[in-house]
Amino acid sequence: MGLIRFSPLILGAPTPLRTLLCSxxxxxxxxxxxxxxxxxxxxxxVYSGPDGSYFGYAVDFYxxxxxxxxxxxxxxxxxxxxxxxxxxxxxxxxxxxxxxxECHDIEFDAEGxxxxxxxxxxxxxxxxxxxxxxxxxxxxxDTILACAPLxxxxxxxxxxxxxxxxxxxxxAQNFTKFAEYAPCRTEVTGHGGQGYxxxxxxxxxxxxxxxxxxxxxxxxxxxxxxxxxxDKIIEAYYPGxxxxxxxxxxxxxxxxxxxxxxxxxxxxxVGDFSGDKLDDFVAGVPKAxxxxxVVSIFNGTNLKSMVEFKGEQMGSYFGYxxxxxxxxxxxxxxxxxxxxxxxxxxxxxxxxxxxxVYVYLQRGPxxxxxxxxxxxxxxxxxxxxxxxxxxxxLNQDGFNGGWLVLVLRSRQVGREINLTVxxxxxxxxxxxxx
Length: 434
Ligand SMILES: [Ca+2]
Ligand SMILES: [Ca+2]
Description:
Distance between the termini: 19 Å
Structural class: mainly beta
Bound molecules: calcium ion
Number of helices: 5
Strand order of the largest sheet: 1-32-33-31-30
Radius of gyration: 21 Å
Largest sheet: 5 strands, mixed
Shape: globular
Number of strands: 33
Helix content: under 10%
């Protein structure tokens, strides 16, 4: 245990990039007999998907009850049984247990492209081919959200448009109920409306079951955040209807022209930052503030903007990735922000994208303190902070601060990826680095 908490550790041999894309290895031990931490690096559970499907592009756990743990794995370029659809994308359900490595795809949507009657003529209403379904996958109890941010809609206009509104599907009540949720498929079409929203580019669930979607392309790429209760989405769903009205749905509105091209909602996370015990929404806006990037915290009950943080370097893509977790176990949710394009000068004087992760510790309601020093990548062009995910108290040491945070960093040099573990100098937390 001390090894991992107090010194860098390389887990496993370098892995070819292709293997990483085609298989997903769980490094957590299933049995309680593990030595040194509860990470079993010798016998990982390995799941594989179709070649070239980007199996593993998105992952989440599926925890319906404490007795069964499964893994949900998105494969956004997988072919499906949907008629006449090429690479519609899939989400796989993979039971996790000893000797189990079988996955099967979840049938969120069996249909091909639907048609719509306009002026007494049938028109193809949408394009599901290459829609990247499964690029975003999140779970909440017995409910799964999976999104296709590149889904296109014809719109209902006489002159057809191809609006990349994106769409999402919910699987609820343990695969017994399915509903589509495409909140950007509205009358407000085109570039100036929600026509390029890419709804579901990012997403999360609040603790009480609200879906929070990022749509970074709405309103001339200002981007927007949209939220609705999962039960209300299912109530509002009616097959065949392209537009739906969900009771209680909240969404950020179009703002001044100076906010165009900011990509609000590129990333999404949730957590209570206002002190009312209700989750608020965090949105990455990586091109805001003259490309320095901004992260905004919105009140989860009314979507009012409460706090904003700005990146330190132009072009660093501050807000590309987000994670929320209580790093120091003081009961207050903390925030991690990735800026994978953050650059430093290398030994030859060239600027190199090493990437940086910023940690904000919550001291009280709307009071977040930027913790220093920042976590900075060490590999040239390594893009440290590309992905951040809280893993919970993996070391189970009962210590008040035994949280783990996973930071993915694709090491592009030599197409190798290493998993490194080291201790984050905040409280007594541990951070995992790819
Ligand atoms: Ca709150
Ligand atoms: Ca905390």
